[in-house]
């Protein structure tokens, strides 16, 4: 057990002294949690194998799950990447800084601990002033998965990080809630056509506007080394058992959520339900005794994504034993929300279209 420093920083204009302290810890091989625009990351010097192994130890993360390397700008790519496929320059100009991770050939300087032994490396430039300040001050590529215990709900506040990792990391930079709330999109540029391995903050539609056809891989990684983080069949999971209802008929989805919640209540479960604002108002009277959380307007997927992980953590804190929710479509951020809920779910119910 180590002493963890919690340092509050201005999210838009981080204090240089606080950033310098955290950067010095990174250079010493310590772990520093920090906000990005997606979720909080648990950072270490990406070029120091021993420091990287400490990430896996702190999280309880298996060695076959690779890490994302964060860079201050695209100009840092030659430090960690062996070759740059043709689309990289265009994608970097359009989407960086931002929630897009690219899978590229690994440079020899990157330890195999970062890449789960693979010859590819995941890289991105984050769009958060605190993350960028830390990268510049340390002058290090920073390997950083989400700053939580492995397999659980990702952290979107420093409080979440403290709950999971206090005593396991040297420092937590508190820059307030993260603005996007789900992880970056992971795009494999070693595949043809390019393939989304993990949907995230950059929608498929935006990528296809630049690249043309982009495939989406919807499988789950086996026990061997994974090409991307976030591919395990069970991931992002709350302690409560989560039931996810999938389908295209919005009214049928909503009614099935109500039926499942009512059935769980009848069996004595403490039930939480996650819905869009309009749906929550529509069914509130049908769910007495249920902890009903509204995530945001139905047509505001950015708001729903931003609130998702905090809502799951809140329901766990309230002691619910079962959670029921539905998908929110498959366009835009809906695809990322669906992916996270699908991997978090203990039960998936698919309605006929």
Automatic annotation (TrEMBL):
Example GO BP: tRNA processing
GO molecular function: ATP binding; double-stranded RNA binding; L-threonylcarbamoyladenylate synthase; tRNA binding
Coiled coil, from the record: none
GO CC list: cytoplasm
Keyword annotations: ATP-binding, Cytoplasm, Nucleotide-binding, Nucleotidyltransferase, Transferase, tRNA processing
NCBIfam families: L-threonylcarbamoyladenylate synthase (TIGR00057)
Family assignment from sequence similarity: Belongs to the SUA5 family.
Reaction it catalyzes: L-threonine + hydrogencarbonate + ATP = L-threonylcarbamoyladenylate + diphosphate + H2O
EC identifiers of the protein: 2.7.7.87
Annotated ranges, domain YrdC-like: 16-202
UniProt cross-references to SUPFAM superfamilies, sorted A to Z: YrdC/RibB (SSF55821)
Domain of life: Bacteria
Function: Required for the formation of a threonylcarbamoyl group on adenosine at position 37 (t(6)A37) in tRNAs that read codons beginning with adenine.
Annotated Pfam families: Sua5_C, Sua5_yciO_yrdC
Annotated residues for binding of ATP: 61, 120, 144, 146, 154, 198, 236
Full protein name: Threonylcarbamoyl-AMP synthase
4Fe-4S in keyword set: no
Main location: cytoplasm
Organism of provenance: Thermanaerothrix daxensis
Subcellular location: Cytoplasm
Binding site for L-threonine: 38, 70, 124, 184
């Amino acid at each position: 057990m180590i002493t963890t420093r919690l340092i509050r920083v201005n999210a838009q204009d981080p204090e240089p002294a606080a950033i310098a302290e955290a950067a010095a810890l990174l250079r010493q091989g310590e772990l520093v949690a920090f906000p990005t625009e997606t979720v909080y990351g648990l950072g270490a010097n990406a070029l120091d194998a021993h420091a990287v192994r400490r990430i896996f130890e702190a999280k309880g993360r298996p060695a076959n799950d690779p890490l994302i390397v964060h860079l201050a700008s695209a100009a840092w790519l030659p430090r960690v990447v062996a070759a740059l496929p043709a689309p990289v320059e265009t994608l970097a100009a359009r989407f960086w800084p931002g929630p897009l991770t690219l899978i590229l050939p690994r440079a020899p300087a990157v330890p195999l601990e970062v890449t789960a032994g693979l010859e590819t490396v995941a890289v991105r430039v984050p769009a958060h002033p605190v993350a960028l300040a830390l990268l510049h001050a340390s002058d290090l590529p920073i390997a950083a998965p989400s700053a939580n215990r492995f397999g659980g709900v990702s952290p979107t506040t420093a409080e979440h990080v403290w709950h999971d990792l206090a005593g396991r990391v040297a420092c937590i930079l508190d820059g307030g809630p993260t603005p996007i709330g789900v992880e970056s999109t992971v795009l494999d540029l070693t595949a043809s056509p390019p393939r989304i391995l993990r949907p995230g903050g950059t929608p498929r539609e935006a990528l296809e506007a630049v690249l043309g056809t982009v495939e989406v891989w919807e499988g789950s990684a086996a026990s061997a080394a994974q090409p991307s983080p976030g591919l395990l069949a069970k991931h992002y999971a709350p302690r409560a058992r989560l039931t996810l209802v999938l389908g295209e008929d919005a009214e049928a989805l909503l009614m099935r959520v109500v039926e499942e919640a009512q059935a769980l209540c009848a069996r004595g479960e403490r039930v939480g339900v996650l819905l869009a604002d309009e749906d929550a108002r529509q069914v509130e009277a049908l769910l007495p005794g249920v902890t009903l959380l509204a995530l945001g307007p139905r047509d505001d997927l950015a708001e729903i994504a931003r609130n998702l992980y905090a809502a799951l953590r809140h329901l766990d804190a309230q002691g619910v034993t079962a959670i029921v929710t539905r998908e929110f479509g498959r366009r835009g951020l809906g695809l990322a929300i669906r992916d996270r809920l699908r991997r978090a779910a203990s039960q998936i119910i698919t309605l006929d279209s």
